[in-house]
Specification:
The chain is an all-alpha fold. About 55% of the residues lie in helices and about 0% in strands. This is RHOMBOID-like protein.
């Protein structure tokens, strides 16, 4: 794999279920959108490998394609792409994220298209397992509309932040959207704090999962800026879309007539909703304005590059 290719890696596949539960019996939605997203990503990867056509495109190189029995679906040489997938040129052709293509060639659609591309089989399996384990649970609780909006918007949020800080490489993967789902889970727990049991344990578990996943992002060839951007976008969207009515309002029909006048939401929920909505609009406006202006986030934050790669004696982040 070219050293200019950044994967959006995600190690949250070990997260099998929500660390908290609601104390009421509520409507459970039948998940279908998240499984469709999984199928769509797999189908897209098959198409990528068809277009890549390693036996033809790799002519003249010393290393042979991997799994040549697959014909045109065979994989790029392991030295070029250790994740077992296509070449960087193929990913770029099909919509990988690249600052130059977006800012100078005005290919804004890459902010969305890149989240449907994956650098290899390993990258695809890790992300799709995480998406199935996290997304299906959330869709059961909140329905396909809200989870679909969160997935797509946070994917774009991750792409915007990635473009602002990484301008010399390409980036692909759904990890920005996956971190967006994790961010939404965290804000949903906070905004609906009073209706959950085991609050402290639930919050600690979720924070540990997020921190571990973000820590993995400081390894080379991992686009941690897309993770951070997706997580922050999901955190704000969760406050806006995943707010739940308080128990007394939901059970007002069973209360005596004199106690039925109950507010649907608590004061702190209204405050969080308003603050999150304002920050979300302001963040996207500022981020897109900086991006289309051709500005670099590194100019305004001299240490932020360490958030995506920490140099050690084993690797050089400049490469």
């Amino acid at each position: 794999m070219s050293n200019q290719e950044l994967e959006r890696s995600d190690s949250s596949a070990s997260y099998s279920s929500s660390p908290y539960y609601m104390e009421t019996c509520e409507k459970q939605w039948t998940p279908w959108l998240v499984p469709m997203f999984v199928v769509a990503n797999i189908a897209m990867f098959i198409m990528i490998m068809y277009v890549n056509n390693c036996p033809t495109s790799n002519l003249g190189f010393g290393d042979k394609c991997v799994a040549t029995f697959l014909g045109r679906f065979s994989l790029q040489p392991f030295k070029e792409n250790p994740l077992l997938g296509p070449s960087s040129n193929t990913l770029l052709k099909l919509g990988a994220l690249q600052w130059d293509k977006i800012v100078r060639q005005h290919q804004v659609w890459r902010l969305m298209s890149c989240i449907w591309l994956h650098a290899g089989i390993i990258h695809l399996l890790a992300n799709m397992l995480s998406l199935a384990l996290i997304g299906i649970r959330l869709e059961q609780q909140f329905g396909f509309v809200k989870i679909g909006i969160i997935y797509l918007v946070t994917g774009v949020g991750g792409s915007v932040m990635s473009s602002l800080f990484i301008q010399n490489n390409i980036s692909v993967g759904a990890s920005g959207a996956l971190f967006g789902l994790l961010g939404a889970m965290l804000s949903e727990l906070l905004v609906n704090w009073t209706i959950y049991s085991n609050k402290a344990a639930s919050l600690f578990t979720l924070i540990v999962i997020v921190v571990i996943n973000l820590a993995v992002g400081v390894l080379p060839h991992v686009d941690n800026f897309s993770h951070i951007g997706g997580f922050l976008t999901g955190l704000l969207l969760g406050f806006v879309l995943l707010i739940r009515p308080q128990f007394k309002w939901a059970e007002r029909h069973h209360l005596p007539p004199c106690t039925r006048r109950v507010s649907k939401y608590k004061i702190y929920q209204y405050i969080l909703w308003l603050a999150a909505a304002s920050l979300l609009v302001a963040g996207f406006t500022m981020g897109l304005a900086m991006l289309f202006k051709g500005d670099s986030g590194n100019k305004h934050c001299s240490w932020c590059h360490y958030l995506s790669c920490v140099p050690t004696s084993k690797w050089d982040c400049a490469n």
